Amino acid sequence: MGRSIPLQRFDDMPVMAxxxxxxxxxxxxxxxxxxxxNENPLPPSPDAIAAMHDAVNITNRYPDHSCSALAQIISAxxxxxxxxxxxxxxxxxxxxxxxxxxxxxxxxxxxxxPTFAPVGKNVRLAGGKVVTVPVLENGSNNVDAMLDAVNEHxxxxxxCTPNSPTGGLxxxxxxxxxxxxxxSDCLLxxxxxxxxxxxxxxxxxxxxxxxxxxxxxxxxxxxSKAYGLSGARIGYAITGNRDLAVGFSKVRIGFNVNRxxxxxxxxxxRDQNYLEMVLDTVSCERQRLSLELENCGLRVxxxxxxxxxxxxxxxxxxxxxxxAERHILVQALPWPDENGSLRITIGTAFExxxxxxxxxxxx
Length: 363
Ligand SMILES: Cc1ncc(COP(=O)(O)O)c(C=O)c1O
Known about the structure:
CATH topology of the largest domain: Aspartate Aminotransferase, domain 2
Order of helices and strands: EHHEHEHEHEHEHHEEHHHEEHEEH
Number of domains: 2
Number of strands: 12
Low-confidence stretches: none
Mean pLDDT: 96
Bound molecules: pyridoxal-5'-phosphate
Number of helices: 13
């Protein structure tokens, strides 16, 4: 008997792309309202669209693997040298890289629960174990309890602020605590996929809080959310030192960030007015949606991101299935109790109105 591939190792890992995401002719179905993926409901900046159009003409050439033009723009904004920035095919690739470089077989990662699910999967693929520490009542990471879970096998300490799916933001004190107390041989990773929304709401400056840390750290950011470039796939890691950046970079696949995404990201970063319009729109709609959901009897977690998590008095699975029958997609989660909760992305005012009217009928 020859050796067979031990696929059963993956039996309890979810398949990423259920049929619900399938698109005919690569176009999102215009009859479906997608409030389930924390996408930006607005298109990217017109400047970004124009830059991506131009880039299409030179796709016979591989892109700049070092992403130097974008690295320079970001470096000038955040005051961190370009050799500490690493770019990925979405920030998801950088989360994968972090587990691959930090976690060895039988080491462990301390994660909040619930949080962005692929992080735990990455740790397991690296051969490590996941220790999950429940989030606080307000949905933010419980740093004190996470620190209590650290032991000599802890190789990765993952914070997510605002946390997905709960939306809770860490305050400066909590981040400082992690900076001081996470052991200096453990990678402190802060996932700021929703950074621009959090900063708009006056959230703490995570990078300056991390600066004094003696041990390794990395911050993960993306163009998928506030910049509206989910479909282009580009994100990045900001690392505490150059050696760590080299480690992240070695895990990248060659030319992982495509030319179109790079052009779009550069132009999007230069169009600050458009970004501010997006942030203001999402913030206003989030406040309105939150009030309306509470009026419908749902309990809504505080959120500094482009989504809300709401608890219901009946099965969230059943509610999301009924909404899906009306062509509205939201994410049902099996947390914090048997009814679960609904994670609802902030859509346009028009989409949110349709969702609210369907939800009222559903409830
Ligand atoms: C917390 C968090 N991190 C990372 C990601 C990955 O985003 P992307 O790979 O599109 O950059 C997401 C996407 O939803 C997220 O919610």
